[in-house]
Design a protein that fits this description.
Blueprint (H helix, E strand, L loop, with lengths): L1 E6 H7 L1 E6 L2 E7 L5 E5 L13 E7 L7 E10 L6 E3 L16 E7 L2 E5 L1
Antiparallel strand pairs: 1-9, 2-3, 3-4, 4-8, 5-6, 6-7, 8-9
This protein binds FE2/S2 (inorganic) cluster.
Length: 117
């Protein structure tokens, strides 16, 4: 079932927003490109709200001292121990097959954001 969570323009101003739908904690986030995603707002490590973390980029590099920044504002970092999650898939960056958070389908219609739960 689709639930109205916010206006697209309101989300644009804050980039991420914690919402509760049917007693589920969900974080709605907007990428740098303006796409909107929804993830379970609970870190699978120790349980804090991911919505209290930062939206950031990913940093990789093959050699010492090499920093390659990618996925600008597409990584949600847990506020406690900095586990990072891809906002598009919910998968962790360090072990995507084993550590992830649930994602929810998002629909945008007439400047309104809906999350399917
Ligand atoms: S509680 Fe989230 S990374 Fe530890």
């Amino acid at each position: 079932m689709k639930h109205l969570v916010c206006k697209y323009e309101d989300l644009k101003n804050v980039n991420k927003m914690a919402v509760s739908i049917d007693r589920k904690s969900i974080v709605v986030v907007m990428s740098d490109g303006g796409e909107v995603y929804a993830l379970r707002d609970v870190c699978p490590h120790k349980g804090p709200c991911l919505s209290a973390g930062m939206l950031d980029k990913n940093c990789t590099g093959d050699n010492t001292g090499e920093y390659i920044f990618e996925k600008e504002r597409e990584v949600l970092r847990c506020p406690w121990h900095s586990w990072e999650f891809d906002i598009k898939t919910g998968r962790s960056l360090f072990d995507p097959e084993k550590v992830w958070v649930k994602t929810y389908e998002v629909t945008i219609k007439d400047d309104l954001v809906y999350v399917e739960v």
